[in-house]
């Protein structure tokens, strides 16, 4: 499992680099020509993606299903910048469209893990609730402290975020009773959100380590199923893990 986590981290880093290069190239901050080091970095990452894709394809039980479920990976392998440099594609507009497709396909690698992480312990709802409190806190402090300690709405939003994260720079400090009550609410909400985030990170990685072993016959049957998507397979395995956890708790309490 440690190897799998390291593998995911490594490819996440490569994906971040690939996306960054794509964004910089689209915004014309860098030039991906053969004289640029960014071209060779991007090409190296593409080669790694290609090798990884075909290794996973060879090892997969159902290759047709694998191809269907990994279309973004297939698109991410296309060396669009190399095609441009070697004049195999000459229309600049098409190249720019390809860059956006490449950016989307590489970004899609994060979707699955990010979605699972955000739904661990209901983190996404906590973050949304905290964001709402921060925005309401900004509006509240703006109207209660306007022309006293806060001069503009952007300053109020800045103060609200700083207070919620418990950083407390002190550049803006409420002087009214209502303003201080708003600050207390923001601090409590921020402390709760940070604690929830820390707990979710721990739970996320622990759940990966304690997931049903793939050598288990039941897990093997689930992983080989062609009727379920990868996400559905993970949910089934997670549910089995939850049932096992309840059984262990009952045995410990008996």
How large is the radius of gyration?
24 Å
| Net shape | flat
Low-confidence stretches: none
Strand-pairing-aware structural class: mainly alpha
What does the model show?
With 254 residues, the protein is an all-alpha fold. It has a domain of 110 residues: Four Helix Bundle (Hemerythrin (Met), subunit A) (Up-down Bundle), CATH 1.20.120. Helices cover 77% and strands 0% of the residues. The chain is built from 11 helices and no strands. Helix 7 packs across helix 8 and helix 7 packs antiparallel against helix 9. The radius of gyration is 24 Å and the shape is flat. The two termini are 31 Å apart. The mean pLDDT is 75.
Provide a short characterization of the protein structure:
By secondary structure, the chain is mostly helical. Helices cover 77% and strands 0% of the residues.
Please render the helix and strand layout as text.
Blueprint: H1 2-26, H2 37-59, H3 63-69, H4 71-76, H5 80-85, H6 92-119, H7 123-145, H8 153-164, H9 177-209, H10 217-224, H11 230-253
What would the keywords be for this entry?
254 residues; mainly alpha; Four Helix Bundle (Hemerythrin (Met), subunit A); 11 helices; 77% helix; flat
């Amino acid at each position: 499992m440690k190897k799998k986590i390291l593998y995911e981290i490594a490819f996440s880093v490569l994906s971040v680099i690939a996306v960054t290069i794509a964004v910089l190239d689209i915004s014309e901050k860098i030039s991906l020509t053969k004289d640029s080091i960014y071209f060779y970095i991007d090409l190296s990452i593409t080669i790694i993606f290609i090798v990884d894709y075909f290794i996973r394809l060879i090892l997969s039980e159902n290759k047709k299903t694998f191809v269907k479920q990994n279309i973004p990976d297939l698109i991410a392998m296309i060396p669009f910048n190399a095609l441009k440099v070697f004049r195999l594609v000459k229309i600049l507009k098409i190249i720019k469209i390809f860059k956006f497709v490449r950016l989307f396909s590489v970004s899609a690698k994060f979707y699955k893990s990010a979605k699972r992480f955000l739904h661990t312990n209901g983190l996404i709802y906590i973050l949304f609730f905290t964001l709402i409190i921060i925005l309401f806190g900004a509006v509240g402090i703006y109207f209660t402290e306007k022309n006293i300690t806060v001069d503009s709405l952007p300053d109020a939003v800045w103060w609200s975020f700083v207070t919620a994260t418990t950083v407390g720079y002190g550049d803006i400090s409420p002087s009214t009773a209502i303003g201080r009550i708003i600050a207390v609410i923001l601090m409590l909400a921020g402390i709760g959100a940070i604690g929830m985030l820390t707990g979710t990170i721990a739970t996320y990685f622990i759940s990966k380590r304690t997931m049903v072993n793939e050598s288990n016959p039941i897990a093997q049957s689930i992983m080989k199923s062609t009727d379920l998507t990868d996400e559905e397979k993970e949910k089934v395995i997670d549910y089995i893990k939850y049932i096992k956890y309840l059984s262990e708790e009952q045995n410990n309490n008996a």
